[in-house]
Amino acid sequence: MLKADLHIHTEYSFDCTVSLEGIIDRCVKLGINCVAVADHGTIAGAVKMKEMAPFKVIVAEEVLTPIGEIMGMFLTEEVPSKISAEEAIERIRGQNGLVCLPHPFDRMRGIKQKRRSLESLVPDIDVVEVFNARTLPLLFSDRKARRFAEKHGLLCSAGSDAHTLREIGHTYVEMPEFNGSEEFRSALAQGKINGRRSCPLVHVATTSRNILRSLKLTGRRPSG
After folding, report:
1. What residues form DSSP beta bridges with 2?
2. What pTM was estimated for this model as a whole?
3. Secondary structure string (H, E, C) spanning 2-14
């Protein structure tokens, strides 16, 4: 059986500084033997980790669209950000990838459109992330995601959404072995989600990195 953390980030994401080597070592230590590397706007880190890691790596990407992030899984080509959700989905499907909605009902990071409009995308969605370790429990966003997935008969996934080493493995899916996207569907359908929340303070670290990155890009320094 696999212990699959189906949503992690690496130093190839603009808001993460964790090295590929560090992630691999942490996963081996924890017994996480499958990860979906879903960096923001790039598959470069995922492709490189797949070559390095002694365990299964799913090449994924969080693609920023006007309505929020859409995750492509089992990608062979990078999908550009800031395109429409419909085009992102078309590009993911065009390379036989799977379309996943990460944290879809998170008020800060979820899909920014009404439920009726979101349901119009259902025929093109394969997977819904129903437990994200970084979501705040009091907002019940994961519960809404699970209800949405079950209502439409969509596969349920889960991940730590780790941006730091300590977060890796906070959430994982225990599932059978698989090869390729079609076997993944069957394996995920049999999966059991094991999860706990990350400390809400992890968002502070991520926000700080974003601010520092913006300052470096603009060449500005904070006043005072």
Report:
1. 175
2. 0.87
3. EEEEEEECCCCCC
Q: Give the helix/strand (H/E) hosting 178.
A: none
Over residues 90-131, the pLDDT tens digits come to: 999 999 999 999 999 887 666 765 555 788 899 999 999 999
Residues whose CB is less than 8 angstroms from the CB of residue 140 and which lie 6 or more positions away in sequence, other chains included: none
Residues 196, 215: Cα–Cα separation, whole Å: 34
Please give the domain boundaries of the chain with CATH numbers for all domains. 2-218 (3.20.20.140)
Three-state DSSP class for 136? coil
Name residues whose C-beta falls within 8 Å of residue 67's C-beta, 6 or more positions apart in sequence.
85, 111, 112, 113, 117
In the chain, what is the straight-line distance between the N-terminal and C-terminal CA atoms, in Å? 55
Q: In Å, how far from its chain's centre is CA 99?
A: 11
CB 10 within 8 A of CB 35: no
